[in-house]
Amino acid sequence: MILLLLLSIPSIASAAIMGTRRRRTMEWIHASATVVALIVGASIGTRIWAGEPVVSWSLLRADALSAFMIGIVTFVGAVAGLYSVAYMRLEFDDNHLSQVRLFYALFQLFIFTMLLAVATDNLGLMWVAIEGTTLATVFLVNLHDNHTGLEAAYKYLIISSVGIALAFMGTVLVFYAASIEVGEIGLSWTMLISIAARLNPNIVKLAFIFILIGYGTKAGLAPMHTWLPDAHSEAPAPISALMSGVLLNVGIYALIRFKTVTDIAAGPEFSSVWLMRFGLLSLGLAAAFLLSQRNYKRMLAYSSVEHTGIVALGLGFGGYWGLLGALLHMINHALTKSMLFLVSGNISLRYHTTEIYGVRGLLKTAPWTGFAFLWGTLALIGLPPFGPFISEFIIFRSGFAAHSTPYAVTGIALLVVVFAGMLASLNHMLYGQPSGPMEARDPLRWSMVPLALNAILLLGFGLTLPAGVRAFLGQVLKTVGVSL
Amino acid sequence: MPFARITNLLSFIFLLMSFLLLMQNSLAAQVRMFAVQSGVLSALAAAVAFFGGSKELFSVAVVFALIKVIVIPNVLNRAVTKIGIQRAVAPYLGTSATLGICAGLVVVAFYAMAPVTALKRLPTVDGIPLAFAGVLIGLFTTVNRRRALTQILGFLMLENSVFMVALLATYGVPLIVEMGVFLDVLVAVLILEVFVYRIRENFESIDVQHLGSLRG
After folding, report:
1. CA distance A225 to chain B (A)
2. In chain B, count of helices (H) and strands (E)?
3. A142 and A177 together in one domain
4. CB atoms < 10 A from the CB of A200, how many?
5. Which of A140, A259, A294, B168 has the fewest CB atoms nearer than 10 Å to its CB?
6. Number of domains chain A is built from
């Protein structure tokens, strides 16, 4: 029942916002829905952490992996949701009320589709929900309704839809393999796991390739990433934060579900090799584009391709530590990237440009914004004492342990390239003199308060991994059949 | 076995329609071919429902026909009339090269689906490589076409083929999933239609080559 409650919050909020005329009412519904969803999400997580293996109701089902994802979705949803109220007031005045309404309604619908995707046992329904995330966000990408927004939205819709159609093909093939063994099993992941050892390995391997390409498109793995820099940079800041911080993780989540089945049916080597290849390619491509990036929102978007690549490498290296590192990195990336995209909203409100060369002296002109941007970017490029450093360290260490040394070494070298490229852009933006006289003023101040949570958590995950968190992640790993 | 014969025949006609679609020069004719292809697919669904003894699948066949034979072709036709472009094919490669490549893709499909067809457990299994050829051709068409509307047709061909793989391999997926998929596709097409109009307004053309300002 609690899962039904969780899903009904954003869906009811979305419908209610569509029927509202007053801006303040919309804002209240929106903000309280994101906070209530976070509370309900946290209570689901607590129940599973306390030892209840599965919470389920009809087609809805949440195990530890789902709870992990629900946590990420609702947390980033709440932070971005609270930020967006003031942001939208500055971006769209009351003459553009229809756009404001569309924004809030689709924001909630977006949250709903992501929660549905991770809270169902039915892999067909998961597919429907993940395609739904594209449909919910496509108008958000084009919210400003200009040339570039239109281009980004069209590309996003057509590439994602084609990609994910291939994921459906993979899903069907897995179930073909299952149905010739045991008859009708109705697309259930739990059923599939229980018979995975009997599946024909060749068909499962073939299916995994389709899954990897299909959900890899949603996760932003190169070379299927081409829509990502456009869509993530054109969308309004809170939506970019959700797309980069959370939606990519939903794609990875789908990959993890199928990887588990593939590993049982065909041995872990097969999925490992392909995940490492795509992971390294993503890292390499992103590094090339990050070296000479001129637009800071695109810089953040390419960095998401990079981090998806790192997570894919972690999944590919495999074993307890590889997967633990991947999960930790999913959390760390969600925290960092959502924070940075929200801060980028502040920067573009202050400078009215997304060009890196248009932004000088950020620390002087908007001190809090500049400080948050510095904090987030240092975490993002993998400096200690922040979380991403630890998770990257765990991932690459597991790479050496798994005798995937060439992948690990190349990966680390590429990280250095990314480090150099992003640090140069950061320097340019933070220091120097702004082109005109600008007094010190942050465009949004109170809205940045929730970001302090991201910042503190990033530092926390960098300094320590509390026993409770470790135990929870251990439960997550057990659901995908990995233990120490 | 009549079941195997019927499904094989329908699968073959299905793939033939993909080729015929690629040979058309006018958009309206392409949309017509798509509608016919969807009709064939709906008949296939009904055949599988009949021989496989599934009542659910009958209703899927009906809803499928409603959406893909009537609603979506109507939406596309409306778009074709409204933007007033009849000859809107404009592929990067010409028709003969396209057909050559697609013939090659059929061979690839048989090769790639070898692990699936090796298990002769289902009477419908021989149609699967044909359906997969449809997937590849749809994918290729989406990449090869310059106009937004023909890219959408490529995507729809791809969608049809995946539906067909599901029909032949697992006798369809559960009803609720199938309905969800239909809803997704329908909404996607409606959104894409809006984009076609907006691209037309903004760029005075539906040639997606104009969509090239976002790079690097």
Report:
1. 12
2. 9, 0
3. yes
4. 19
5. A294
6. 3
Is A175 within 8 Å of B135 when comparing Cβ atoms? no
Q: Which of A91, A119, A147 is the last residue of a domain?
A: A119
Model-level pTM? 0.95
Confidence of residue A434 (pLDDT cuts 50, 70, 90): confident
Q: Is residue B212 part of a domain?
A: no
pLDDT, tens digit, for every residue of A302-348?
Answer: 999 999 999 999 999 999 999 999 999 999 999 999 999 999 999 99
Asked if the structure places residue A130 within a domain, the reply is: no
Task: Give, in degrees to the nearest 5, the angle at Cα A433 between A429 and A435.
Answer: 95
Rounded to a whole number of angstroms, the distance from the CA of B81 to the nearest CA of chain A is 21
Question: Are A206 and A78 in the same domain?
Answer: no
Please indicate whether, in this complex, the C-beta atoms of A157 and B192 are within 8 angstroms of each other: yes
Structural domain of A39 = 1-119
What pLDDT score does A473 carry?
95
Number of Cβ pairs < 8 A linking chain A and chain B: 131
Q: What percent of chain A has pLDDT over 90?
A: 86
Are the beta carbons of A165 and B158 separated by less than 8 Å? yes
For residues A297 and A180, state if they share a domain.
no
Question: Taking 90 as the threshold, does the pLDDT of residue A484 lie above it?
Answer: no
Distance in angstroms (rounded) separating the CA atoms of residues A313 and A275: 6
The ipTM, to two decimals, is 0.93
DSSP string, B138-165: HHHHHHHB-BHHHHHHHHHHHHHHHHHH
Contact yes or no for B199 and A155 at CB 8 A:
no
Where a domain ends, among A236, A266, A296? Answer: A266
Both A444 and A370 in one domain: the answer is yes
Q: Which of A126, A138, A162 to mutate to test the interface with B (most CBs of B within 10 A)?
A: A162
Mean pLDDT of chain B: 88
Asked if the structure places residue A129 within a domain, the reply is no
Are residues A261 and A324 part of one domain? no
In this structure, the answer to whether residues A52 and A144 fall within a common structural domain is no
- Residue carrying structure tokens 């999960």: A327
Reading the block at residue A117, the tokens are: 């995707």
Helix, strand, or coil (residue A86): helix
Q: What totals of helices (H) and strands (E) does chain A contain, helices first?
A: 20, 2
Same domain for A143 and A92? no
Quick check: B142 and A175 CB within 8 A?
Answer: no
Q: Is residue B216 situated within a structural domain?
A: no
* Token pair belonging to A403: 């005798």
Asked, for residue A127, whether it belongs to a domain, the answer is no
Residue range B29-33: average pLDDT?
A: 94
Contact list in B for residue A229 (CB cut-off 8 A) is 214
Provide the domain limits for residue B165.
Answer: 2-207
Looking at the structure, tell me whether residues A251 and A310 fall in a common domain.
Answer: no
Give how far A224 is from chain B: nearest CA, Å: 13
The verdict on a CB contact (< 8 Å) between B188 and A161 is yes
For residue A231, the surrounding DSSP H or E stretch is: helix A228-234
Question: How many independent structural domains does chain B possess?
Answer: 1
The answer to whether B208 touches B148, Cβ cutoff 8 Å, is yes
With residue A335 as reference, give the H or E element that holds it.
helix A319-351
CB-facing half-sphere around the CA of B161: CA atoms within 13 A: 31
> Measuring CA to CA, which residue among A302, A275, A277 is closest to residue A291?
A302
pLDDT tens-digit profile of A173-219?
A: 999 999 888 877 778 999 999 999 999 999 999 999 999 999 999 99
A403: phi > 0 → left, psi -120 to 50 → alpha, else beta; which? left
